[in-house]
Amino acid sequence: MSGPVLDVRDLWKIYGEGEATVHALRGVTLTVERGDYVAIMGSSGSGKSTLMNILGALDVPTSGAYLLDGVDVSKLADRQLALARNRLIGFIFQAFNLIPRTSAVANVELPLAYAGVRPKERRRRALEALETVGLADRARHEPNQLSGGQQQRVAVARALVTEPALLLADEPTGNLDTRSTEDVLQVFDRLSAAGRTIVLITHEPEVGARTKRLIRLVDGRIVHDVRQAALTR
Amino acid sequence: MSFSEVVRFALRGLAANKLRSSLTMLGILIGVAAVILLVAVGNGSARAISDRIEALGTNTITVMSTSRGGSALTKDMADSLVDPVLAPDVKSVSPVVSASATVTYEGADHDVNSFVGTTPGWFAASNTPVARGAAFTQDDEAQGRRVVVIGPTVAEELFPGIDPIGAQVTVGGALFTVIGVLDQKASTGFQDANDTAVAPLTAVRQVLTGYGSLNSIVVEAAAPGKVDAVQSQVSAILEQKLGNSTSYRLQNASQLLQTQTATADTFTTLLGAVAAISLLVGGIGITNIMLVTVTERTREIGIRKALGAPRRTILTQFLIEATLLSVIGGALGVVAALVGSSFEIVGVRPVIVPSSVGLALGVSIAIGLFFGGLPAARAARLRPIDALRYE
Question: For residue B76, which of A5, A98, B127, B244 sits 20 to 30 Å off, Cα-Cα?
């Protein structure tokens, strides 16, 4: 497959009506190539979370086109949308959003279960994904027995277990301390080096600095879009 | 995603909160068990009452004396009721005298509540068959032979482990020969109906009661449908003889049965209504828990949707959870009711009404499905972002 993973054209998102109308996105146009590592930065209220939710097919835009791996997501029905979320997107939340009282490996297996993968194969791939994020020894732990950084790495493993075209991370380090942030970012670096396409949102400059491309969003518009040399550690 | 997979998800969902799941089930269990058991108790008491009344004989009319002292009922009057012209539907007439008496056998004695003197037709009319030995005959009655048929209680008391037939007992200073033992009979009221002895009328009058008035006259109708006709014929004859109709009373067993059955039905309905309220309360409990469960897990639904769960899979999972809760709870309730019905409750042996089982189970499952399914359907329809933001 060739062509951009993400192709967003003139995206608008408007909340409310009349006096209370809020323009969260005012015509965002963006393409992301395969293997890219993009950070979207912006102050709160700049519309970056809205953009992320639309990119993750969790929300729908008011107008504009959104092609994910060549598929127009805005025209999909619920069933196909679920399929797209499952196969094409790996979403990582700021609040981790692991299913409570469910072991790490079961959490990672979940997207594979919805994809209809056989239990044995599922277990193997889930353990492999946990291995990738360095948590193979915590597979049996439940979320409340894991630290924030570990929970987020489980969430990363869950996002990449289906080998999606695109990894989306909404402030993945927003709830983490410096040490855990470093752990999670190292995982992202490794994934990027392995050729994964990653788009993340952050308001921390040091996180943005590690990516290959930095996009700055102000009042629902892209004001900055620069390539940068990935920092080497 | 296969169905068994969804079932496993649902089981995991239930197991994740064991206390709440089991409390919900307990609520359904109690509701279902209460309905089945209370209706069974009502039904059982109705059954018991009708059994007792049927034990009196449903084809009969009893003429009872109401005045204490010199009763108006005499042997002549009983004889006058055997009249093919005035009372064509009468099958038999049994004059009855009874007294309490002490029966003695080889030093052991037993106080018999009602030592009955009557004619042989009484056994059939009063629905009192002889289990062992034989009833006395018309000839015994005419000759005034001192023979006696004893009730099961008397047989147990005086002849433990011995065959009483042929034994000689002393009653009121006279010797009676035991010729039979009566069948077990359901008791009416507080008196033990099995604590009795029956002997020929002539013998009992001679030995115990004297030749005064009768206690009652049992009139047997030719057929169950003729009971009312017999009643009017009997009262016509008695009216003619006595004039004063306050000194006796006619008791019609089938009328009594009808009244009692109607009362018992009302009782059953009342118990059923109380139980239905408890099922309703249980149902509201289920509804509440389901609402709370789904609301609390709206976030989880959002996560699952974000991971690519189709709406139907989520809905199925929650529906199965609700179904499992209500089906398991309901089934346990049925089991509890079945176990409970094998015990006597306030002196009544409950008799399960099959339709109450179906109804209680059906209602509880319907409530579980509806109120478990409705909020789940609502949550599954939400956009994932709204479900995720839900607090």
Answer: B127
